[in-house]
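Duplicate of #3305? Posting structure anyway:
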């Protein structure tokens, strides 16, 4: 099985105390990769854009007012084309981190895209 980890908000800039990126997502992806390797899953690919989230959110619909539309289009196309080459034998982990308190005392949140299944733990 192939594992693809996207870390769309890891490119950070500083705005005082304002949180404008996923400050721990890249580290979490590294940890997850190590855990997978420990379980003999070593076919892991990281995809992480070098665009600030404040410029454009790679997980949202295309915004025509963003100054980073070229980067957005390249990122989305690259992810889509890469996933297409994998066939059906892959899992996609879209890695994020959240401010303290968002998921109470849970360390991990798995959110199903269909929103029919939300698991915390």
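Output from current build:
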């Amino acid at each position: 099985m192939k594992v693809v980890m996207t870390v769309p908000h890891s490119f950070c800039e500083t705005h005082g105390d304002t949180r404008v990126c996923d400050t721990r997502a890249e580290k979490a992806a590294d940890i997850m990769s190590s855990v997978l390797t420990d379980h003999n899953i070593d076919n892991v690919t990281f995809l992480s854009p070098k665009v600030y989230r404040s410029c454009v959110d790679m997980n949202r619909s295309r915004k025509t007012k963003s100054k980073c539309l070229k980067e957005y289009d390249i990122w989305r196309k690259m992810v889509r084309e890469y996933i297409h080459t994998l066939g059906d034998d892959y899992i996609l982990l879209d890695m994020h981190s959240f401010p303290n308190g968002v998921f109470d005392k849970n360390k991990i949140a798995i959110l199903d895209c269909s929103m029919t299944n939300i698991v915390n733990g």
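Confirmed duplicate; merging threads. The two ends are 24 Å apart (CA to CA). Residues 114-121 have pLDDT under 50 and may be disordered.
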